[in-house]
Amino acid sequence: MPAVALVALGACSPVYENHGYAPPPDVLAQIDVGRDTRDDVAEEVGQPTAEGVLGEDIWYFVQSRFRQYGWRAPQEVDRQVVAISFSPSGAVANVERFGLEDGRVVALSREVTGSSVRETGFLRQLFGNIGNFNPAGLFDE
Length: 141
Fold this sequence. Notes:
Elements (H helix, E strand, L loop, with lengths): L1 H11 L1 E7 L4 H4 L9 H7 L5 E2 L6 E12 L5 E12 L5 E8 L22 H7 L13
Antiparallel strand pairs: 1-3, 2-3, 3-4, 4-5
């Protein structure tokens, strides 16, 4: 019976997973705003997780920490986003750090396609395609 209690207790303990990389404050302190370039930042900090949507004006470094209890879905408990922006001349213009409390969920793109799958049963779809098969289409002639 004690073994069952240990297994049950172990299933309740959280499991943490880390994803991505955001440079720590001491590394960011080495960046000289107005003087360092993209190459300097890449050497000091590394390559970004993502770049700005409209060009290379902003580099993003994203790090997340997730907690999961047993069968439950993972929950994001910490997020750090570092945004390093560059001037048109290529020098560092700004360095910002955002946390989970600063963020919000933004849908960048949402495309919904109507589907008749719910209206038509599986067998009707399967047998409806039998007449549409053309063996000549297998050969490029």
